[in-house]
Amino acid sequence: MSTINKSTILIADDEPNGRDTLGALLIKENYNLLFASNGIETLEMTRKYKPDLILLDIMMPGMNGYEVCKRIRADEVLAEIPVILVTALDDKESRIEGIESGADDFITKPINSRELRLRIKTITRLDRFRQIHQAYAENLRLEKDLEKEKELNVLKSAFISIASHEFRTPLATINFATGFLSKYWKSLSGDDIELKLKKN
Length: 200
Prior knowledge:
By secondary structure, the protein is α/β, with parallel strands linked by helices. The chain is 62% helix and 12% strand.
């Protein structure tokens, strides 16, 4: 089912019919479809595949959709992955709990195929914009770091040039004096050595 440059969608539902229904509605759109049958498996597959979107059933045994969503949001690596909660619950309290768990959107069973496709397209498009924006921001940061490095290299080169010029004369004098003394010190008196040092 893998298709290049298509979004990967993880469908999480403990009911085989639920997974099959969503898969049948989306397979014609050429998404890369993954399937999980419980909360633990959903988290494992999310960590492994980093899907572009998760369609997450709320009413799963053991770990329900709310808890799965909370754990995804608590994970720094997974936190930005969009989650649509799929539920038969259509009351206000359920939606509030979904928002609190970090869900991006809801879709209610029985599922309207057109509504599902539109919501998925909207969210995956927004997520791609977010990824592009993050990549652009990262490129800007790298460019700024590179410019700073270039500036530091220019300053370092300037400092070395100035320092070598400023210290060239004193160092040359010292080198000459020490060379002269090492060669002739045995034949010079103390007064001659002092006079020679004062001249240099």
